[in-house]
Amino acid sequence: MASRFVDRAVIHLAAGDGGNGCASVHREKFKPLGGPDGGNGGNGGDVLLIVDPNVHTLLDFHFRPHARAGNGKMGQGSNRSGAAGDTLEMHVPDGTVVLTEDGEVVADLTGPGTTFVAAQGGRGGLGNAALASKARRAPGFALLGEPGEARDLVLELKSVADVGLVGFPSAGKSSLISVLSAAKPKIADYPFTTLVPNLGVVTAGETVFTMADVPGLIPGASDGKGLGLDFLRHIERCAALVHVIDCATYEPGRDPLSDVDALEEELSRYTPGLGGDLAKRPRVVVLNKIDVPEAAELAELVKPELEARGLAVFEVSTASRKGLRELTFALAAVVEKYRSEQPVPEPAKVVLRPLAVDDTGFTVSADPDEEGGFIVRGPRPERWIRQTNFGNDEAVGYLGDRLNRLGVEDALARHGARPGSPVTIGDVTFEWEPSTPAGVAAHLSGRGTDVRLEDTSRISASERKEARRIRRDGVSEEDDSVDEGPGE
C-alpha cells in the first residue's frame, strides 16, 4: 500500500513542566544548623520543529497530532539539581509553514536543519539554597516549577520548487515532468489523476532546478473549488510558472487562449499566504500534444497571438520528445535570471532588546467583575504566582516581599486599594494586606510560617459580603427576623 501524501495537519503541542525546587536543610553529625541545601528543579523540555530533507509529507502529524516533551525532575537535598526534561524533536519537510489557528504565519521553515521552538519548556523552581539571604537564612520553602507552554498549531507544506506546472486536469503535466526528470508520477487520461504534488529534478547544462507537478487547476479554484487551494499552496515559492495547454482536447468551449485566460484569472484571485504576487512571476506557455495533427495545427494558429501578449511559447510533445530540449534550456535561463535578481540571504542576527531600567513590567486596573477589586497583569507577577506554593505561609510571605519590591503595593495604593481589597494576579485572587516596606528585614518566625499571615483580626469575607448587602438593600438579616406585631 502506497503511503498517503498529507500537506496540512493540525498539531497539539505541550512542552515539559519545570521541576519543583527542594526545601532541605543540611544535617550532619556534630555539625548542627548546616544551612539550606535544597537543589533547583530541572527545566522542562522544549518541542522543536526541525527541517529534515528525508521527510516529504506531514503524514506522521496527521495520525499522531498530540505531542509532549519531558518534564523536569524535582531538586533534591545536598544541593542536587533535578534533571532537565527531554527535548522533543519533530522532523518536518522542507517548505513547511507554521501558522496559528487564526491563520497567522508563525514560522517559514526552509533549508535542512532549520529549527523552530514550537513550545517553550517551563523553568524549574529554585530550591531553598538559592533563596537564602541575610534576612532569610534557612528558608522553609522552595519555588514551584513553571508549567510548559501548550500550543495548537497548523502545519502546511508548500513545495520548494523553481518551476511550477499550471494547467487543467489531463493537460499533460505529469507526462511532461516524467520525461524531463526522473520523477514517476501516476499518469492516466481521467481528471485529477494527480492528487498530490510531484517534484522532479531537471538538469540543463550546468543549471539544475526543481519542477513541481501539482493537482490540476479548474475555474473557481481560488475559492476552494475542486483541489484548488491544495494546488495553489504549492506554487507560492516557484520562480516561474509554466502553463501547460492541451491542444488536443475535445471538450466544448475549450481552446488554448481561453485556457490561458482561465488559468491567469485563478492565479490573480489567489493571495499567497507567504506574501508576494503571483502576477509578477515569469510565465512560459507550453502547447502540448502536438504529435496529434489537429493539435499541431491549432498550436501554430494560436502561438503568434500568445507571443503578442509577451509570453514565451513552446510547442512540445511528450510522446515524441519534440521541443523538450529547447523548453528545458529556456526554463533554466528563466530560473537563473530569477535567482540572480534575488537578494543574497543574510545569516540570521540575534537581536537583544533589554527592558528599560524603570520598566516595572506590570499594570494595575480595576476588576470589572469584583466591586473594589483590582487586576495586576505582567509577566513577572504572573510567573511568581505560578511559582508559589500557597500551602506554605513562608512562601506566601516571600511572594508578598517580591511584589512589594517590584512596586505592586505602591501601585495598588495609588489606584485606591484598601486592606482587604480583592486583588487578582494570574489565576489567583487574594485579599490585599499591605506588608512591610521593601528593604526591611523579614519577620523572624518558624520555618514554613510567616507571622504577618497570623493576624486574623480583620473582618471575614462573609462579613464584608453581608455589609455590601446591607448597603444595597438597607435592611439587615436581624431586622428581617423581627416578627411584626398584630395589626390594628
TrEMBL record:
Entry keyword GTP-binding: yes
Top-rank EC class of the record's enzyme: hydrolase
Locate the residues binding GTP. 167-174, 192-196, 213-216, 288-291, 317-319
What domain of life does the native source organism fall in? Answer: Bacteria
Where does the UniProt annotation locate this protein?
A: Cytoplasm
Gene3D superfamilies in UniProt? GTP-binding protein OBG, C-terminal domain, GTP1/OBG domain, P-loop containing nucleotide triphosphate hydrolases
Where Mg(2+) is bound, by residue?
Answer: S174, T194
Ranges for domain Obg = 3-160
Instruction: Outline the extent of the OCT domain.
Output: 354-434
Q: What cofactors does the UniProt entry give for this protein?
A: Mg(2+)
Disordered: annotated segments:
440-488
Where is it chiefly localized?
Answer: cytoplasm
Q: What is its EC number?
A: 3.6.5.-
Signal peptide span per the entry?
Answer: none
Q: Which keywords annotate this record?
A: Cytoplasm, GTP-binding, Hydrolase, Magnesium, Metal-binding, Nucleotide-binding
Domain OBG-type G, first and last residues per copy:
161-336
Query: What segments bear the compositional bias annotation Acidic residues?
Result: 476-488
Q: Which portions of the chain have biased composition (kind: Basic and acidic residues)?
A: 449-466
Summarize the protein's role: An essential GTPase which binds GTP, GDP and possibly (p)ppGpp with moderate affinity, with high nucleotide exchange rates and a fairly low GTP hydrolysis rate. Plays a role in control of the cell cycle, stress response, ribosome biogenesis and in those bacteria that undergo differentiation, in morphogenesis control.
Q: Which PANTHER family match?
A: DEVELOPMENTALLY REGULATED GTP-BINDING PROTEIN-RELATED (PTHR11702), MITOCHONDRIAL RIBOSOME-ASSOCIATED GTPASE 2 (PTHR11702:SF31)
The text of the family note is:
Belongs to the TRAFAC class OBG-HflX-like GTPase superfamily. OBG GTPase family.
Recorded protein name is GTPase Obg
Source organism per UniProt: Amycolatopsis minnesotensis
- Top-level taxonomy: Bacteria, Bacillati, Actinomycetota, Actinomycetes, Pseudonocardiales
Identify the gene encoding this protein: obgE
